[in-house]
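Side project, low priority. Logging it here so it doesn't get lost.
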Amino acid sequence: MSNIEARIQELGITIPDITIPLANYIPAKRSGNLVYTSGHVSALGDKSFKGKIGRDIDTEKGKEAAKIAAINCLGAVKNLMGNLDCIKQIIAVHGLVSSDPEFTEQGVVMNGASDLMVALFGDDGKHTRTAAGIASLPFDFSVSVYIIVEVH
């Protein structure tokens, strides 16, 4: 078992198989030594976070939603590359948080995704980041995350 697989198992995380998108895009694409993912939403298995953060969902649940979206991003990388051992470092984590207009803790919500990357990859998981509040996401999902990773 690889180091990253062992760490994933240790943290009790399951990396999903990514299904074919319902629209005209792909889940992840490699260009040189970088892999870019599409935005992945806050739904995994029987867990789904919908509604506005700060109105329908509190900040702590928002962090969990961001973590789930980031796990889905890793699933897209794994689907494209065959495994996660290919990841040299996490370059960027970008998040869109569907939030109430008065909500200002989008950065705290995105800590769910950022903390996951550092927990899995250590210093190589530290990354640049965007945390933006928006009016809505498709199908009323609460969070959408996309990542850029450097691969070997």
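Brief comment: The longest helix spans residues 59-81.
Revisit when time allows.
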